[in-house]
Amino acid sequence: MTDEAKIVVRPITLADKDEWKFLWRRYLSFYSTIRDDALYEHTFARLLDPAYPGMFAYVAQTQGHLIGLVNCIVHDHGWYQEKVVYLQDLYVDESARGKGTGRLLIEQVYAQADRLGMASVYWTTQTNNHTAMKLYDKVARKTDFIKYQR
């Protein structure tokens, strides 16, 4: 059995809250970002709320523990009639990297986007995140756009 076969990717559930929060905190820390507990509560609630179609999330699990997460935002886009998916957060615990978890999470987002009839899935990453970009170059097409922010 391969390492990849032992990994289960599934929709996030209420029971995942503590482990999701731990992983998301580590993800934000990687980007030198700190948020208060109120934001964790707010985001987790939106990810679970079936009445809020603007966000969804999946987690990767092995041996009863979460090892990865992906949080996505669904939004309108001026160039398409259909909505698009912004893959906002993708994180795999250091202990589980290199085993296909990131690819599985991205593929699940692609599958969900296809089920929902979305026009596109996109994401951004830091220019120095070379490890992640090795995966991204295999599963997506790099664009010429640069992000600006106020």
From TrEMBL:
Name of protein: GNAT family N-acetyltransferase
Keywords: Acyltransferase, Transferase
PROSITE patterns the UniProt entry points to: GNAT
GO MF, any single term: N-acetyltransferase activity
Pfam families linked: Acetyltransf_1
CDD domains (alphabetical): NAT_SF (cd04301)
Residues annotated as domain N-acetyltransferase: 7-150
Transferase is among the record's keywords: yes
